[in-house]
Amino acid sequence: MNNLLVAPRRRGCIRIPALSDWRVQDYEDLHELTDRIPGCDVVLYGGDDLDRGLAARDVVQQIVEKTTLKRLLFVAGNDDLPEDKQSLADVAYAHDLHEEPFVYKGFAFRILRRPGYY
After folding, report:
1. Can you give the residue range of the structural domain that contains 40?
2. 118 in any annotated domain
3. pTM of the full predicted structure?
4. Which residues pair with 44 in a beta bridge?
5. How many domains does the structure of the chain reveal?
6. Tens of pLDDT along 53-80?
7. Which pLDDT belongs to residue 97?
8. Which residue among 4, 5, 12, 110 is least crowded, i.e. fewest CB within 10 A of its CB?
């Protein structure tokens, strides 16, 4: 991450660190990324291994607290258990995009469902 170049923030834009399948990576890497990209608005997690995020809840909350909205938007993946999805949805800073879209600065985050899925 030493070569990370961050462009100046343009008016009206949003910054979102987005990740998925965080199976073995260290959450400290995400800490460093959010430190190096000032003004992140929200964190977006694209599914799988929600149980790891729940186990590291304190670290994840510290990362989320660095964002403007202090929110984690997430989508459960095909490897996630329904009880892990619900446990994360019950955390105050988390927002389950399967259950409800999220709108910020005119940008909508939502799940487009296909018949027969989910």
Report:
1. 18-109
2. no
3. 0.84
4. 18, 73
5. 1
6. 888 888 889 889 989 999 999 999 888 9
7. 94
8. 5
HSE of 96 in the Cβ direction (CA atoms, 13 Å)? 16
Which residue bears the tokens 């190096």? 36
User: In this predicted structure, what is the pLDDT of residue 88?
Assistant: 92
Contact indicator for 37, 10 with CB cutoff of 8 Å: no
Instruction: Answer for the pair 55, 22: CB distance below 8 angstroms, yes or no.
Output: no
Amino acid of residue 94: A
Instruction: Round to whole Å and give the CA distance between 85 and 83.
Output: 5
DSSP, res 110: -
